[in-house]
């Protein structure tokens, strides 16, 4: 584990891409094959199965640290990460360990076969011999989800440097349905043919957000414009009479969407389509929240299929007749996609994402304004002569998102932040007017500068009306402009609405509280843009 | 309105010290400790901006804290006393005792007819070799900070931290990079200087830090040799050397002149991964002039006090924990700000 902990420290300590790649490449040169394989798995979200629930972990950690459970919970609240909180509250290790990463993972996987006492013994034994960083990693192996800011792409680059296998070949080989239990390092890295795994998708090409003026992109005729539909990006593969559906998170989701299953027969072998898994009925996309009801479910029943039907909104064609056509220009791929869908009836399962023809950027800007009503996130711009690249690359593909919805709201409650910000009030609840009372409707945490947080903190201290645990109610006075991406009806929220991605856009010191928006304004927005909370 | 009024009930009207919206107050002697609003007479624990503020008619501090307080606050009426020396005002005995936080920092002991209070300001138990080392003071009422009053905060011994810092400097020097290390101008900067290995290279300082160094050297305290960063210095002189900077200067154009740098930050907050990442430093070193969790508990135990008043930091959590230990602990709302305030003061930005 020491070798892996060193890698983690080197990765964690820098934000510079080159330093991260160098650290990984060094590791891939030195570590043994099984550790390398597991590291690749962890960095591509292939984790060992969860074998202990976090409630048990908390109890054991508090006991070993000699503190009350509530103190551990409070620490967790401040730190924001359970694995890290536990690694820090435990007393210093009693001994050190030279077990490798794979050996520790084997131990974690074994835990599932033990009873509760056995689990406790194994976990607390581990804590006694691991240092703070190693404990953190060990805990993460159990609880899952550690982020070190290494994308699949960076990992592939480092692996390529260490193994001298070409990066694009590696990218292809690393996708697909492998785990360290089903393959070896050698098999994975050196498997020659791309067809030895017919499910293997192509890396997605991702667009950058357009920050500059659209006009600066050049003349409209160089560009293809279409809506950026608000679903889940997906890749649909038909090879050897079998169907595979991948989501952008490189997750195989074929079983979740039985609507697509007839496509194995309806589309020819050697077809790969890039598109959007989109909830859709009666000729219209439904809101993203409709799709959300299906994301977490492994099994889908009839009721769900009726309430949340989906189609594939096709954007692009990557493989036709078994040939990889990603290097051909966008315009040509689009023609081939249209031809494919004209010659093959998909019974309405695959739709062609309509292209919006425009000769003036102003026309397109106007179309973008309609995005929210159409349940799209804005406009996608693709250069007509662009290849289908890998990952996020600047220049050829842009997403031109619709501006956020905004509402002016009054600050009602404040709560302290985490970590370095524990001395500052950073978590706020806002209200809108309902007659002459203010009703809370959303929380927001981000969007202010450090200076503004400092100022509002001083103000909160002096204007607290009441306290409820960590929350303080403050004198209604300050107005903030809240930006958000969507709104829907919600039975779980007191105000009856829930916002998507709310944040503070501006502190409106120019506005008296009386001029904040009203509940009626909020309901009007719900009427216009909202979906039902199912 | 004073939000401190909430706590008046716990300190009955006859209490020796009370908590007002101007600061900690001794009515019998009519003096305040570390007040944050203008008052006639103020006893000051140490020179950090949140404890030592402008606008008091008269100040009292330790001899060794005096020069920096004067330097920061300008033309004030300041009297100084030695550690342990007793000043009696209307029968109340006041004395200053080492707090180990920064040079000259003190806990203020207040005694009247057998009732003993200690206001500890900011403090740490580990002897940094530069500040007067912390000494426990027995009392019945103890006022403590709780900047790092959470069990996740446990410091590693300073020798190990300085070994890491010096290794980092050496590695940067080998790559021809400039090591830029940040710490607030008063306290952390001198402690870093004290622990740096001058045999690795030259140490340059930001103006705000060097101004404070000059004040401290003038009072007869030895610090390693440093060079003030200035326009006259040839940019080719910097690679391989170390620059000690205030955290605030890092975001400024000032930093550009050093070329290829590695940025290190030294603070207790660097314990947490989230804080390390938000700071954007290449390296975070966990080094604090405040107590960690075990030190706070040890200090409270050493005072023998049963009444604990918890100021700036994780006040609610720490006082709740003390109550589970059977102590009579309450949280206080003050305007002390802990390490945040120590990182930057108006003085530093003005003179920097
Ligand atoms: Zn201080
Ligand atoms: Zn303080």
TrEMBL record, chain A:
One Gene Ontology term from the biological process aspect of the record: DNA repair
Keywords: ATP-binding, Cell cycle, Cell division, DNA damage, DNA recombination, DNA repair, DNA replication, Ligase, Magnesium, Metal-binding, Nucleotide-binding
EC assignment: 6.5.1.1
Boundaries of every ATP-dependent DNA ligase family profile domain copy: 303-434
Catalysed reactions listed for this entry: ATP + (deoxyribonucleotide)n-3'-hydroxyl + 5'-phospho-(deoxyribonucleotide)m = (deoxyribonucleotide)n+m + AMP + diphosphate
Top-level taxon: Bacteria
InterPro entries hit by this protein: ATP-dep_DNA_ligase (IPR050191), ATP_dep_DNA_lig_pp_1105_fam (IPR026333), DNA_ligase_ATP-dep_C (IPR012309), DNA_ligase_ATP-dep_cent (IPR012310), DNA_ligase_ATP-dep_CS (IPR016059), DNA_ligase_ATP-dep_N (IPR012308), DNA_ligase_N_sf (IPR036599), NA-bd_OB-fold (IPR012340)
UniProt keyword Metal-binding, yes or no: yes
A Pfam family per the record: DNA_ligase_A_N
Keyword Glycosyltransferase: no
A molecular-function term among this protein's GO annotations: ATP binding
Protein name stated in the entry: DNA ligase (ATP)
Lineage: Bacteria, Pseudomonadati, Bacteroidota, Saprospiria, Saprospirales
From TrEMBL, chain B:
Coiled-coil features, chain-numbered ranges: none
InterPro entries linked to this entry: MBL, RibonucZ/Hydroxyglut_hydro, Xnuc_lig_assoc
Stored PANTHER family: BLL1145 PROTEIN, CLEAVAGE AND POLYADENYLATION SPECIFICITY FACTOR FAMILY MEMBER
Source organism of the structure: Neolewinella agarilytica
Protein name: Putative mRNA 3-end processing factor
GO molecular function annotations of the record: RNA endonuclease activity
Gene3D superfamilies attached to this UniProt entry: Ribonuclease Z/Hydroxyacylglutathione hydrolase-like
């Amino acid at each position: 584990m020491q070798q892996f902990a060193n890698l983690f420290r080197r990765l964690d300590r820098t934000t510079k891409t080159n330093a991260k790649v160098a650290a990984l490449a060094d590791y891939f040169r030195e570590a043994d094959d099984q550790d390398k394989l597991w590291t690749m798995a962890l960095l591509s979200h292939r984790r060992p199965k969860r074998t202990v629930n976090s409630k048990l972990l908390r109890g054991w950690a508090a006991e070993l640290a000699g503190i009350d459970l509530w103190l551990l919970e409070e620490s967790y609240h401040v730190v924001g990460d359970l694995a890290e909180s536990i690694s820090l509250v435990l007393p210093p290790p009693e001994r050190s360990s030279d077990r490798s990463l794979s050996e520790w993972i084997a131990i974690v996987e074994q835990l599932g076969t033990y009873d509760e006492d056995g689990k406790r013994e194994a976990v607390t034994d581990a804590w006694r011999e691991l240092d703070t960083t190693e404990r953190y990693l060990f805990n993460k192996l159990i609880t899952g989800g550690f982020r070190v800011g290494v994308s699949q792409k960076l990992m592939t680059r480092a692996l390529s440097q260490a193994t001298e296998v070409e990066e694009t070949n590696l990218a292809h080989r690393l996708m697909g349905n492998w785990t360290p239990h089903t393959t070896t390092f050698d098999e994975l890295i050196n498997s020659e043919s791309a067809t030895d795994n017919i499910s293997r998708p192509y890396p997605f090409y991702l667009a950058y957000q357009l920050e500059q003026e659209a006009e600066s992109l050049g003349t409209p005729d160089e560009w293809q414009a279409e809506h950026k539909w608000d679903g889940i990006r997906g890749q649909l593969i038909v090879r050897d009479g079998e169907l595979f559906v991948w989501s952008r998170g490189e997750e195989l989701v074929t079983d979740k969407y039985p609507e697509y299953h007839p496509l194995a027969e309806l589309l020819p072998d050697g077809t790969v389509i890039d598109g959007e898994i989109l909830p859709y009925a009666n000729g219209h996309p439904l809101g993203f929240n409709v799709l959300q009801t299906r994301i977490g479910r492994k099994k889908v029943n009839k009721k769900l299929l009726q309430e949340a039907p989906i189609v594939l909104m096709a954007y692009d064609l990557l493989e036709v007749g078994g040939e990889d056509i990603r290097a051909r220009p966008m315009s040509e791929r689009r023609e081939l996609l249209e031809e494919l869908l004209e010659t093959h009836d998909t019974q309405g399962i695959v739709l062609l994402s309509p292209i919006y023809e425009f000769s003036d950027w102003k026309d397109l800007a106007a179309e973008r304004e309609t995005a929210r009503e159409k349940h799209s996130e804005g406009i996608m711009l693709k250069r007509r002569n662009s290849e289908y690249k890998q990952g996020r690359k600047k220049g050829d593909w842009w997403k031109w998102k619709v501006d956020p919805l905004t509402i002016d709201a009054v600050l009602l409650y404040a709560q302290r932040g985490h970590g370095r910000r524990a001395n500052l009030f950073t978590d706020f609840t806002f209200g809108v007017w309902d007659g002459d009372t203010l009703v809370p409707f959303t929380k927001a945490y981000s969007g202010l500068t450090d200076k503004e947080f400092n100022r509002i903190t001083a103000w909160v201290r002096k204007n607290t009306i009441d306290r409820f645990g960590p929350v303080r109610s403050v004198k209604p006075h300050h107005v903030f402009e809240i930006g958000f991406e969507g709104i829907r009806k919600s039975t779980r929220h007191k105000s009856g609405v829930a916002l998507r991605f709310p944040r503070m856009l501006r502190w409106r010191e120019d506005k008296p509280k009386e001029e904040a928006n009203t509940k009626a304004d909020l309901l009007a927005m719900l009427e216009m843009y909202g979906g039902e909370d199912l | 309105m004073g939000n401190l009024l909430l706590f008046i009930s716990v300190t009955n009207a006859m209490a020796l010290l009370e908590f007002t919206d101007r600061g900690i107050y001794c009515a019998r002697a009519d003096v305040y400790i570390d007040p944050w609003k203008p008052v006639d007479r103020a006893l000051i624990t140490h020179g950090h901006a949140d404890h030592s503020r402008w606008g008091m008619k008269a100040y009292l501090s330790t001899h060794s804290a005096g020069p920096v307080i004067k330097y920061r606050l300008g033309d004030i009426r300041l009297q100084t006393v030695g550690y342990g020396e007793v000043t009696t005002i209307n029968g109340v005995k006041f004395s200053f005792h080492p707090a180990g936080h920064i040079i000259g920092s003190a806990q203020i002991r207040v005694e009247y007819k057998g009732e003993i209070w200690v206001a500890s300001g900011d403090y740490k138990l580990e002897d940094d070799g530069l500040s007067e080392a912390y000494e426990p003071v027995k009392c019945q009422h103890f006022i403590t900070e709780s900047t790092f009053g959470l069990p996740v905060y446990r410091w590693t011994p300073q020798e190990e931290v300085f070994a890491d810092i010096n290794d980092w400097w050496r590695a940067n020097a080998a790559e021809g990079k400039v090591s830029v290390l940040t710490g607030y101008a008063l306290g952390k900067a001198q402690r870093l200087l004290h622990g740096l290995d001058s045999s690795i290279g030259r140490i340059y300082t930001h103006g705000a830090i060097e101004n404070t160094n000059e004040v401290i050297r003038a009072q007869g305290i030895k610090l390693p040799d440093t060079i003030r960063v200035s326009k006259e210095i040839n940019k080719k002189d910097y690679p391989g050397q170390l620059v000690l900077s205030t955290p605030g200067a890092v975001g400024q154009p000032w930093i550009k002149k050093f070329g290829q740098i590695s940025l290190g930050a030294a603070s207790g907050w660097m314990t947490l991964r989230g804080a390390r990442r938000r700071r954007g430093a290449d390296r975070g070193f966990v080094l604090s002039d405040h107590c960690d969790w075990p030190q706070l508990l040890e200090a409270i135990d050493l005072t023998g006090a049963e009444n604990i008043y918890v100021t700036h930091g994780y006040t609610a959590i720490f006082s709740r924990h003390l109550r589970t230990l059977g102590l009579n602990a309450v949280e206080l709302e003050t305007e002390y700000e802990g390490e945040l305030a120590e990182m930057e003061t108006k003085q530093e930005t003005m003179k920097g």
